[in-house]
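Reminder to self: tokens first, then the designed residues, so the page reads top to bottom the way the pipeline ran.
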């Protein structure tokens, strides 16, 4: 058997990439980042890169597409590099799992029964859940001795007031699990903790957090707790995303089924792959491309994105009975001054005033000294959150 190294690995697997971070376990109960990286471009231009905590490159390799054609092959390649570098296997592995359904409200040690229950949730998160579970199954087959912990994007939102989680349908459906779950919870949990460190007084107030990336959502945080979210039963609800439609009248789906003859697979593709910024622009799902474009489609997509972010900010403020601040995070939220500026302009009526220079420097504080409300840019770190949960469960179980 391969030896065990006093480290903890975090895996965040998607359809075309695997992000990972490795932490050293210091004196058994503290985490210290050793390195992080990702294997991206699976099946197209596979590229494995990792850097240590100081930013020094540890590996930077590109492979022929046929050698890393799918997620299983990518996991094998990553495992070979990790075990070779560590000289053994990690003490435990934590995984991001998007949907926990009604059964899982906290991180859980994975066994075959848990895996089977999580597999049943694939239809609710078809872009994420299968890829989240593949590494867990593969590692269990190769290294059953390694404890694996599933950490859920839905768990942070499970403390919502019930009225925020319900649809206007019969109670029996709610009891069965047809309810609003909310997602990106690992990101929001991290942001709530960082805000407590950066500005404790604001962290105890009413904050709208905006996780803006290819997948996008917003969350109402009151005293660090999730009160409501723009995402619901699935991760397709709420804001327009890279290729996901966001909020859509269910009548549109009925129209596609009845008038256009769509089947379930075509509806799924329409909702998850053909909508959002890609559908609106007709050209790209990438905000960077759209900002650089002078086409009417690109302008339409960006206008709609900004409009919906501002609209949802008002709705989430109403859910909390007011607002004291806003936080931007994730790829677009952290790196796009133009989107932040346009959102802040739409929210001036609430009392936000932008500091343009600070916004261009990505903050962290981007509201002006005269602003009634505060606005921050805070980089998220879902992997750090997963590592903390995994270590806590490991210590409580073994």
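Designed residues (398 positions):
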């Amino acid at each position: 058997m391969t030896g065990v190294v006093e480290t903890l690995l975090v895996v965040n697997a998607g359809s075309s990439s695997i992000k990972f971070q490795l932490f050293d376990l210091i004196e058994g109960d503290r985490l210290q980042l050793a390195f992080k990286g990702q294997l991206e471009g699976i099946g197209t231009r596979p590229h494995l890169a990792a850097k240590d905590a100081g930013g020094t490159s540890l590996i930077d390799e590109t492979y022929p597409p046929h050698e890393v054609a799918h997620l299983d092959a990518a996991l094998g390649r990553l495992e070979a590099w990790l075990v070779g570098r560590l000289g053994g296997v990690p003490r435990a592995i934590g995984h991001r799992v998007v949907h926990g359904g009604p059964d899982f409200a906290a991180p859980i040690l994975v066994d075959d029964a848990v895996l089977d229950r999580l597999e049943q949730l694939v239809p609710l998160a078809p872009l994420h859940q299968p890829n989240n579970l593949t590494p867990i199954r593969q590692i269990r087959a190769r290294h059953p001795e390694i404890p694996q912990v599933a950490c859920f994007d839905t768990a942070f939102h499970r403390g919502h007031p019930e009225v925020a989680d319900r649809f206007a349908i019969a109670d029996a459906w709610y009891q069965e699990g047809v309810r609003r779950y909310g997602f990106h919870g690992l990101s929001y949990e991290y942001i709530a903790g960082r805000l407590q460190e950066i500005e404790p007084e604001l962290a105890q107030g009413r904050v709208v957090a905006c996780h803006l990336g290819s997948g996008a959502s917003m969350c109402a945080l009151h005293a660090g707790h999730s009160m409501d979210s723009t995402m619901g039963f699935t991760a397709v609800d709420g804001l327009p995303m890279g290729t996901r439609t966001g909020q859509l009248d269910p009548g549109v789906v009925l129209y596609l089924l009845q008038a256009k003859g769509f089947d379930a697979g075509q509806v799924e593709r329409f909702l998850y792959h053909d909508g959002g910024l890609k559908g609106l622009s007709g050209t790209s799902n990438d905000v960077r491309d759209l900002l650089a474009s002078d086409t009417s489609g690109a302008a339409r997509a960006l206008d709609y994105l900004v409009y919906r972010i501002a609209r949802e900010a008002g709705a989430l403020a109403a859910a909390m009975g007011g607002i004291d601040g806003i936080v931007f995070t994730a790829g677009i939220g952290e790196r796009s001054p133009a989107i932040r500026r346009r959102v802040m302009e739409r929210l001036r009526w609430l009392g936000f005033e932008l500091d343009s220079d600070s916004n261009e420097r990505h903050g962290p504080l981007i509201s002006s000294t005269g602003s009634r409300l505060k606005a921050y840019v805070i980089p998220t770190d879902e992997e750090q959150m997963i590592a903390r949960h995994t270590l806590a469960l490991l210590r409580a179980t073994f």
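The chain has two domains: 4-152, 201-382.
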